[in-house]
Write a sequence for this structure.
């Protein structure tokens, strides 16, 4: 990693990182984000993460970035998994155990079918 | 000059230096704020909440002992809120205290008791469970009883900061807090040097000397035993305090009378042995100086210091004089020379020593201290224990006539007397060494450079053309400064005196205990040391080698200093000790 | 916003739980990958630092923080800018910046959330603070019980060093600053700033009287500022968006937002950040989703064990530092524990006091012994052994402890007791005078009885009773032997005919 010495350099790094996060020019990419704060991990998010990783590998899914994030504050519904795709609204799945995780990979990530009943409710 | 600050306390204006605390400013006005954990210059931690005051503009009450003064500050020391808070706090302390006052060693000399009286405590509104107390009497010198401890931490500061020994600290927390050695070990299992400065700092009876008076009573009552007593130089300037005499009052001859009335068969003087120590140690110094021996030579009279060295500076043990301390030399001579001279079976001689010191109890029990075939000293009592025995026997020291010590082991010089104050051993040794080397009479016997309460004193003495660099340290944190210099090769001392306790034996851990208030008003070490030097001035003989009883001892028995008999009876060696007893 | 056919949301950020919040301190938590510095930078991370170092003087940084009106989010609510000004004005070449990440209030985890979810925000803020006061080093004192936070902090520090955002000549300026972690061992009192400093220095973690304040004499005797994680997390945003922007959020005397950890008897437990001045009601009902199982709200405890219980009649109260204090509670670090009709307020007071009593460092008698005595009194009240005059005894002790304890822990320890006496004195009296627990929660004061008319004699209760306290012939009303009954509630739970009465 290069040292950032000026405001301009920082802005460059920022813009590049932003573009990557927004998956600019990568229409087929998917970002899967698992909440891996202590509360998430306590609810089993570590296993969820592993299951997703395993499922992605097993099914040879490409162009997917599996990431972790911190706690968004909604402990009640952990583990939480976000599926983010360019030009599509973000989807948050709640209480994602290993079984659900594998199905999310299969249905949502691979087949683009949103699993309605596992999505965060209107609260 | 320091900036002055003006503030108002209880409506009265006062001007004090800007570094003062509110407590100090109040004292200047004659306003007494009660304290408990406060021990001036030693323990200023604001823990006990007794000295709280109201300060205009501050939400909570403030501990005046730590509160810096500021310009225009308005303080109230005596409002209903302050008084009630102090009372509640004191009642809480009492609710967790065993309150066995009449049977406590500190009865009528207890700051908690005094405070309860002063704050007009009539009942305890909040009784409840007491903390799980520890009673630790494994140490031969010091007994800890946490059921009386009020966690003021004065002992902790004395141990850590004054002595740099640091073997007691608060353990656990909250209601379960106890002051104890690490891992709740006994004082006997850690690097405690038995100095008893913790006892001197304790406002209550949570720390006390191990009481050995019963053993002395039993010996005195035993017709088979020839019970003799020796009394250390510092006792004659402190015992009177326990009998209403002023601080540092000289009671040498009343002390001799008192001991005789207690029933000792002979009343001797450790000063005799102090003169003997000078003969041996002075000779040892000259031997090392002239024959390329290990220098600097460090004195070994103070058993607290010796144990400190064994734990903390084992690499310097060869620098420590091989001489036994005067207490032990006395015992060894009593059970050899004196026994022979009087025809008393040494097995029946019972040697009691009266010491200003708790570490002397440990020293007396050292297994190597038995070169006559018998343990040199049978029981070492502190000044306080002697005072209790005298009171129990109805002997009021202040009302006794003057009497002399017995011969021959009661004959001594002024040089021996000054052993009781820091610098005294050095001065006594210089008086003798000078005359031995130069074979000339010393014109000025007073060595003022090594006297006084400065932590580390240094001087260079011209002994017939040889420049002898000496250093004197008292209190172990001061000793550390000197020892670290020696260890790191940063000093070229030839001779060092180290006394474990601040002020030397006059400030020993077995001496009468003063309250924090008294200590603030008067440096008791200074008062006692002044008397020590007065004793010296008034002695007809002021150099150890001129003591006729010592001269007779060498002539009749020992031969010469560092001779074969001396070596066997009067010298010893010390060994490295671990920091924790891992047994 | 797209809503699914069954009314479900798409993303958590679309829910009212999230949308009713104003997230400044938590702005990145749950949204970025905390282990990748670029994701922080992508969200304008380190822009504030770049701006301050290249365009602002240290005094201008302090002025901005002062103007924002930011107050400490960890306890007392002292104005952050003033703290910084004191430390900046203090004489000395060596100064320190310390972060209090020793989050210890039961149920509070906002600091952990930031440490785990957005560690760079803390790093950036502490570096800014270092620039402002002229420090070259900082320490983060974090609980050892937060291993993930420790791991991510370490990672973040090494990434920031690689990027030159910590270390020598940051952004090519003369300013150098580095950060180090110190792990606490789980003593609540180490959240008190002087105790925290003692612990960093390797001493027993216990407070000392102030003054001198750390701003003048702090870590190793040098001028030091100590702020908590949430306070720092606000700093980069304040500097980037400006004090004016920040000042528009919140109220006159409580600017900005506050994070609360909502727990207890509430539907949506979790972490929320709301604008200061939001009424309590809104947090509990609109964000928290109200009380489960149709139970009645009774009180909410704010400020953790140092705070107090606020009753239903004050639910309209806006959340501000001063309103909470007036209500006998405090902001504290932002714990918010909701209680319903089943909670006994004496028992709640006992719970919180037992926490502070356990965590007392033992240095001063009012806290060490006083809280113990208060706890003993509460204990006997909940056991039905309370005596007339016990409430007054509690009050007098509490008053004295508040006035005379050495540190904030002791001075605030009586708050849960005082506030519950203030609002729920009748509950205390019921325990003492009638030997009755109105909430039916204190075991020693509840009794079980079988209503003969309703009992069908099925024997199920006798079967589940672990101590054989229930007997009766089949198909005949059963009876409970009160001497044997251990009040485990098993029979009550099991009975299908509502034939067991608790009273």
């Amino acid at each position: 990693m290069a040292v950032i010495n000026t405001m301009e350099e920082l802005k460059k790094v920022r813009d590049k990182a932003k573009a990557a996060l927004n998956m600019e020019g990568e229409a087929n990419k998917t970002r899967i984000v698992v909440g891996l704060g202590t509360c998430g991990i306590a609810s089993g998010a570590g296993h969820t993460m592993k299951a997703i990783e395993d499922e992605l590998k097993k099914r040879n899914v490409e162009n997917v970035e599996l990431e972790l994030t911190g706690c968004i504050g909604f402990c009640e519904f952990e583990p939480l998994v976000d599926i983010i795709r360019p030009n599509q609204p973000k989807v948050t799945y709640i209480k994602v155990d290993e079984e659900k995780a594998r199905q999310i990979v299969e249905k949502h990530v691979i087949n683009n079918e949103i699993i309605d009943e596992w999505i965060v409710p209107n609260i | 000059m320091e900036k002055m600050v003006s503030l108002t306390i209880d409506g009265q204006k006062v001007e004090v230096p800007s570094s003062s605390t509110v407590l100090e400013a109040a004292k200047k006005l004659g306003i007494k704020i009660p304290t408990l954990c406060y021990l001036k210059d030693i323990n200023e931690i604001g823990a006990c909440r007794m000295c709280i005051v109201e300060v205009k503009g501050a939400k909570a009450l403030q501990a005046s002992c730590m509160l810096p003064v500021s310009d225009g500050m308005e303080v109230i020391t005596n409002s209903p809120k302050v008084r009630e808070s102090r009372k509640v706090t004191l009642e809480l302390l009492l609710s967790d205290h065993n309150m066995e006052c009449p049977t406590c060693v500190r009865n009528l000399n207890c700051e908690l008791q005094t405070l309860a009286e002063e704050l007009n405590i009539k009942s305890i509104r909040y009784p409840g469970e007491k903390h799980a107390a520890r009673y630790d009497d494994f140490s031969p010198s010091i007994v800890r009883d946490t059921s009386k401890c009020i966690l003021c931490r004065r002992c902790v500061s004395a141990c850590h900061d004054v002595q740099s020994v640091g073997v007691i600290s608060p353990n656990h927390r909250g209601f379960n807090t106890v002051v104890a050695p690490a891992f709740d070990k006994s004082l006997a299992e850690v690097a405690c040097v038995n100095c008893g400065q913790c006892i001197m700092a304790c406002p209550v009876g949570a720390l006390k000397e191990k009481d050995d008076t019963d053993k002395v009573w039993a010996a005195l009552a035993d017709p088979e035993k020839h019970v003799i007593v020796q009394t250390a130089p510092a006792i004659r300037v402190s015992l009177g305090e326990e009998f209403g005499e002023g601080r540092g009052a000289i009671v040498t001859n009343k002390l001799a009378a008192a001991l005789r009335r207690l029933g000792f068969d002979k009343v001797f003087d450790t000063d005799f042995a102090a003169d003997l120590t000078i003969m041996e140690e002075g000779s040892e110094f000259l031997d090392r100086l002239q024959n390329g021996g290990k220098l600097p030579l460090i004195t070994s009279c103070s058993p607290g210091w010796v144990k400190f060295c064994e734990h903390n500076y084992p690499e310097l043990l060869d620098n420590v004089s091989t001489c036994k301390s005067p207490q032990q030399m006395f015992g060894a001579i009593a059970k050899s020379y004196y026994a022979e001279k009087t025809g008393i079976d040494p097995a029946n001689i019972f040697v009691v020593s009266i010491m200003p010191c708790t570490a002397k109890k440990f020293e007396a029990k050292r297994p190597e201290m038995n070169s006559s075939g018998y343990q040199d000293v049978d029981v070492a009592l502190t000044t306080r224990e002697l005072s209790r025995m005298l009171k129990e026997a109805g002997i009021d020291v202040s009302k006794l006539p003057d009497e002399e010590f017995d011969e021959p082991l009661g004959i001594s010089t002024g040089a021996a007397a000054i052993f009781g104050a820091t610098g005294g051993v050095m001065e006594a040794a210089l008086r003798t060494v000078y005359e031995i080397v130069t074979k000339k009479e010393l014109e000025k016997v007073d060595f003022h450079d090594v006297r006084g309460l400065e932590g580390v004193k240094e001087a260079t003495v011209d002994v017939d053309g040889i420049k002898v660099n000496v250093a004197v340290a008292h209190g172990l944190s001061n000793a550390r400064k000197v020892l670290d210099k020696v260890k790191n090769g940063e000093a070229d001392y030839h001779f060092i005196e180290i006394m474990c306790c601040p002020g030397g034996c006059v400030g020993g851990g077995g001496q009468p205990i003063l309250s924090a208030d008294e200590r603030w008003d008067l440096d008791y070490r200074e008062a006692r040391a002044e008397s020590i030097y007065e004793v010296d001035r008034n002695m007809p003989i002021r150099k150890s080698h001129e003591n006729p009883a010592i001269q007779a001892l060498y002539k009749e028995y020992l031969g010469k200093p560092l001779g074969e008999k001396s070596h066997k009876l009067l010298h010893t060696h010390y060994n490295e000790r671990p920091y924790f007893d891992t047994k | 916003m797209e809503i699914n056919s069954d009314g479900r949301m798409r993303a958590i950020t679309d829910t009212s739980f999230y949308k009713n919040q104003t997230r400044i301190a938590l702005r990145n938590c749950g949204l970025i990958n905390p282990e990748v510095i670029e994701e922080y930078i992508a969200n304008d991370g380190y822009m504030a630092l770049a701006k301050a170092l290249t365009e602002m003087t240290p005094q201008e940084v302090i002025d901005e923080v002062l103007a924002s009106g930011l107050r400490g989010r960890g306890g007392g609510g002292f104005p952050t800018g003033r703290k910084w000004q004191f430390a900046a004005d203090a004489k000395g070449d060596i100064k320190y910046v310390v972060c209090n990440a020793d989050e210890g209030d039961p149920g509070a985890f906002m600091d952990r959330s930031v440490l785990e979810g957005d560690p760079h925000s803390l790093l950036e803020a502490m570096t800014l603070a270092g620039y402002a006061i002229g420090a070259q080093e900082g320490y983060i004192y974090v609980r050892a019980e937060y291993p993930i936070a420790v791991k991510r902090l370490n990672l973040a520090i090494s990434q920031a060093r690689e990027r030159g955002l910590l270390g020598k000549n940051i952004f090519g300026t003369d300013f150098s600053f580095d950060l180090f972690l110190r792990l606490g061992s789980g003593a609540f009192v180490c959240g008190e700033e002087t105790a925290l400093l003692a612990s960093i220095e390797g001493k027993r973690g216990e407070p000392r009287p102030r003054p001198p304040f750390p701003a003048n004499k702090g870590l190793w005797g040098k001028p030091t500022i100590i702020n908590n994680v949430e306070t720092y997390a606000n700093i980069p945003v304040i500097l980037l968006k400006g004090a004016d922007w920040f000042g528009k959020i919140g109220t006159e005397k409580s600017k900005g937002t506050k994070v609360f950890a909502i727990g207890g008897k509430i539907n949506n437990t979790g972490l929320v950040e709301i604008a200061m001045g939001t009424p309590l009601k809104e947090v509990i009902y609109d964000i928290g989703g109200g009380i489960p199982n149709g139970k009645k709200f009774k009180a909410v405890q704010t400020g953790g064990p140092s705070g107090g219980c606020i009753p239903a009649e004050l639910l309209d109260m806006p959340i501000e530092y001063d309103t909470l204090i007036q209500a006998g509670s405090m902001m504290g670090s932002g714990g918010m524990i909701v209680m319903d009709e089943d909670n006994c307020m004496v028992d709640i007071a006992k719970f919180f006091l037992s926490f502070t009593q356990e965590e007392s460092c033992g240095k001063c008698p009012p806290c060490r012994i006083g809280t113990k005595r208060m706890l003993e009194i509460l204990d006997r009240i909940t056991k039905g052994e309370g005596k007339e005059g016990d409430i007054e005894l509690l009050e007098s002790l509490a008053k004295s402890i508040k006035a005379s304890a050495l540190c904030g822990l002791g001075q605030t320890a009586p708050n849960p007791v005082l506030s519950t006496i203030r609002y729920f004195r009748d509950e205390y009296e019921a325990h003492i005078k009638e030997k009755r627990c109105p909430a039916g929660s204190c075991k020693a004061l509840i009794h079980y009885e079988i209503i003969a008319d309703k009992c069908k004699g099925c024997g199920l209760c006798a079967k589940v009773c672990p101590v054989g306290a229930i007997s009766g012939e089949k198909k005949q009303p059963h009876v409970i032997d009160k001497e044997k009954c251990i009040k485990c509630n098993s029979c009550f739970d099991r009975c299908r005919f509502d034939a067991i009465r608790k009273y």
Observations:
- The mean pLDDT of chain A is 94.
- Chains A and B do not touch (no CB pair under 8 Å).
- Helices of chain A lie at 7-21, 38-42, 45-58, 98-110.
